[in-house]
Amino acid sequence: MLLSRLATVFAAVTLCRAQISEYFDEKLTVTPLKDGKVASTLAFTTLLKNASPRNVERLHDDDDSQHYTLFPLALGQILREYGVTEMHLTLNAGKWNYDSWGHPVEPGVGTGAELWAWIGDGALSTVDARWKGLRNALAGLFCSSLGALDELRTTSPTEVFQPEGSLPSSTPHQLRHASHPSEHVCTENLTPFVKLLPCKASAGLATLLNPHRLFDANWHGMGVHVLWHEDEGVEVRLTFQTVSDPLRNYQARKQDWSFESLFGRKVERACPAARSSIVEVSLPQDSPYNLSPEPTLAEKDVAWFDIQPASKPVDISMSYMPDFNPGLAARLAKPSTPLSVQRTLKESSQAHGQLSVVLKNHESYPIQAVYLETMPWIVQFYLHTLTATLDGHPYTSAFSNLSYIPAVPHSRPSTFHVLLSIPANSTLKVTMDVTKAFLRYTEHPPDAQRGWDLPPAIIAPLNLDTNRMYTPTLLVDLATPDFSMPYNVIIFTCTLLAFLFGNVFNLLTRKFVVVSLKPAPSSTIKED
Amino acid sequence: MLPLTLFHLFLGLSVSLLGAFASDHQEETVKGFFGRNGTSQSTHTNNWAVLVCTSRYWFNYRHMSNALSMYRTVKRLGIPDSNIILMLADDASCNARNKFPGSVYANPGRHLDLYGENVEVDYRGYEVTVENLIRVLTGRVEPSVPRSKRLLTDEHSNIFVYMAGHGGNEFLKFQDNEEISAFDIADAFEQMYQKKRYNEIFFMVDTCQANSLYSKLYSPNILATGSSQVGENSYSHSSDKDLGVAVIDAYTHYVLELMEGINKTSQSTMQDLFSSIDPNKINSHPGVRSDLFRRPLDKTLITDFFGGVSQIEVVDDEEGVEEEAGLVGGNGKDSVSSTAPAQASFAIPERRASHSKRHIEPVSNTSTTSEAKELWGWVGSSTRAWGAVALFGGLVGWVRMRS
């Protein structure tokens, strides 16, 4: 009886263990853009099959031991420690130009650091405590100051940041989103990123991660995305996107590119741990070109290369016949995105300003888009001044479903969420007056005269199949005090007090007397 | 009844005395183990480094380059990233003004890239503050601070603390809006001494009037050096025409030049380091404070602080005999590192042969008195231990049989 029970338990355990398997895929997508630049996206996906997020109700118990071979252990430990189901971290530098470059392969292109996570509720520790732990753990893992994404920058915009994977239905989940637009990204963020890959940077497409060329690109950003697919398992996707400019050198006339010119490297070896290693190249439609080597599979507008069986070293290159003509390219191409957005902050004084957003609809049908603003408390909205004009004329039916969580000074940012309807082929301008805060002396950063970066606004179209768009960040100039004043006040006050006290003390205690000096008689002087 | 208790008391005393003898022998063995590393008498078991650049802005490129030079040196000489706390107050490498992104150079002509492809910066940007530095040094960090940002030293750790930036008489400026004073640093080191967080500290400062920054230290086992005396400035070395800023400070430049010629097995001493800096070339007079440091400077190796060189003794599993496989320093053989496994394996069979000989004739091979004493001590201690156990067992058996 006991033996048969043990046998069934043993069989079940081995079967379960046998079903957990890991797959690693890598993919590079290269797209020539209409203004002569080249966008490339490297995506490294590790799938832990049949795994599921940790049960948050048992978070205080010891965890089951996790055995990974390809799945990054450092990241897995952090996620299980804090009961995180879905997490997205992006570190970007530059301004993504939607009008010229279209929509990126990975939608998270907000400048600076952006971290959002769906965290399970119901454990003994609160979601906020675990959010803080997650931020600091990721800050330590990726060498970035994500600890600064505290409650001064954290919001919960659940309608815009819906989970990209599935959430376990047994526990409720909460969203936490924070962004830090002035965060830099550099080689120290890429070093731990590369260490999470099975083949590191020595084999496969990861050899193209050359920091000297990646951080020289016009736009670059890295992303870490963790999702759970209910029927698949836990997926970790590490991405690195760049927009490089082959025409940057003034002698270059053609927008030719190759691995050597984009990354400074070729793929020397295939990664043996990778299940698939694919390069996808978008083919230009309007000018003759030459693509080498021969693609594995080619269609009208896309070509695929399978790296693993290819002869090494692999250097995919595209050369164009005619020179690049920027005027012609601009005339021939349609607007890259259905919606164009521009956001500005007009500041005429150090106390007030006006936020202005201009949305252009290039399509022939109306667009419904959610506009989300997570503004730090230093800039506060006057909601009653929210107005909309359409092609210059006042337009009253632009807004619906307005939801506003006001800012709490020194502690919480404001969340402004409105559904905009933009009619076909028209320009909608939305303006709102803002007031700027007067900060406490200790709240100013060391380089206070630079100003504060405001996080990007997010536009999520509802009736289009495109993903969310990010506006560029803004720089707001707040009133700065004279930082030498405390020193001046202390010196002046101490001088005054010393002067007053000294005079009064002398007047009260000092007495002037006349001392007469008699010559001393020499006979009474004795030597000892 | 009384004779029985007296006898038990006598037994207890004898066993404890034997135990004391045994631990004395262990102390001698440990001292002898550490003393085998050539001329160094250091008793540290691990190395840590805290490298701080306190200046912000592009024109202070050279301070970031200073800290990164020391980072490169300690990493090259064996301290792993997990034992290095690197604090850079600004981002010079991926700065928008940097014509060569991803690189920080140490000399004009750009021959040496200090950033490379494998760098981990623990505290960066606004996180480099006086409070964070003191918290890191004293270990009083918040529970949420991740492991890579903590200084997890113990009482056998040698710590190399390097600070570069703008400073003055008994202060160092952090990020243009706050200062750390020499008293703060002295108190932080004293807290570390009280909490047994270091074995020895080497404190190096490259700022204007740097020698004043270590003038207030009062804890033992600290060796300090600065780049200029009170009233003197420390100067930058040279600037690069394409970058447009000064790329390194003069003092750190000459330190780096000396360090580039040193590897893990080097027997160069701290005295060599201090003597190699020429005050005429750097236009300031460096100072050294060694009154708190108990070892002589010409016996203290540079790798005691800058390198992660460990004493290793290989123990043979089959016989349980300690083999003298001193693979580090002293006798000129390469240290156990990723670069020289082949040489290590050549060394071991040699020693095994000599040891097997020694094992057959234990008494005649022992030439030096210390080796003889050690062998006698080992033999004596095991005999004594077993004797005590047998005596105690016999006594208990006799008592049981009587009652």
UniProtKB/TrEMBL annotation, chain A:
Transmembrane regions: 487-508
Any one GO BP annotation for this protein: attachment of GPI anchor to protein
Family annotation (InterPro entries): PIG-T
Keywords: Membrane, Signal, Transmembrane, Transmembrane helix
Signal peptide: 1-18
Pfam families: Gpi16
Keyword flag Glycosyltransferase: no
UniProt KW Membrane keyword: yes
Gene Ontology CC annotations of this record: GPI-anchor transamidase complex
Entry protein name: GPI transamidase component PIG-T
From TrEMBL, chain B:
Any GO BP: attachment of GPI anchor to protein
Pathway: Glycolipid biosynthesis; glycosylphosphatidylinositol-anchor biosynthesis
InterPro entries: GPI_transamidase, Peptidase_C13
UniProt GO MF annotations: GPI-anchor transamidase activity
Start and end residues of each stretch annotated as Disordered: 348-367
Protein family according to the UniProt entry: Belongs to the peptidase C13 family.
Name listed for the protein in its UniProt record: GPI-anchor transamidase
Annotated organism of origin: Ephemerocybe angulata
